[in-house]
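Async update (no meeting this week)

Hi team, since we skipped the sync, here's where things stand on the single-chain job. The sequence we agreed to prioritize is pasted below, unchanged from the tracker. I ran it this morning and attached the output directly underneath so nobody has to dig for it. Comments welcome in thread, and please keep replies under the output.
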Amino acid sequence: MDHEREFKLIREFLDGSESAFNEIVRNYQKTIYWHARKMLGNHIDADDVTQEVIIILYRKLSSFKFNSSLSTWIYRITSNKCINHIRSQKVRRFFSIDDDEANELRENSDLINDVENKEKLELLDNVLQKLPAKQREVFILRNYKELSYEEISEISGKSVGGLKANYFHALRKVMELMENEKS
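Output:
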């Protein structure tokens, strides 16, 4: 959805149009869910976070400042909710992915274009769950969402330099853990 359309829908919602908010949700619900799913590693937690983010959007859309795109703002809220959820759970879970997710991952990530079967995808997902939350976040946003460091900086509030360092460490750990897991 283009920025003009997003801003028009936000204004309509702020003027009382529930259908405008419903359209925003329709356009972003899957994005929120899949981002949360990749961050949290399972459907139940991702679904819970998705619902929480939608409630936050409903309550806080009036505070949106139009300084960034709506998607950047939504990614920031979703990432923060996921990190808070991870902190509150204090439990790292492994997740399995179904064939639909495997197809989406193949389409959206240069890193795993050469990964051809579900076993290898599960291995990658298991490895991602071993990364610290901040490294996992930058890795997912960079590889799955193909965002620039500047966009990730807007979402996370972290410096570009810090993000590059986190990404470098995450990439190194992923490659190292993938090798160790294969052995």
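Quick observations from my side:
The chain is about 75% helix and 0% strand.
The CA atoms of residues 41 and 95 lie 5 Å apart.
Reply here if anything looks off.
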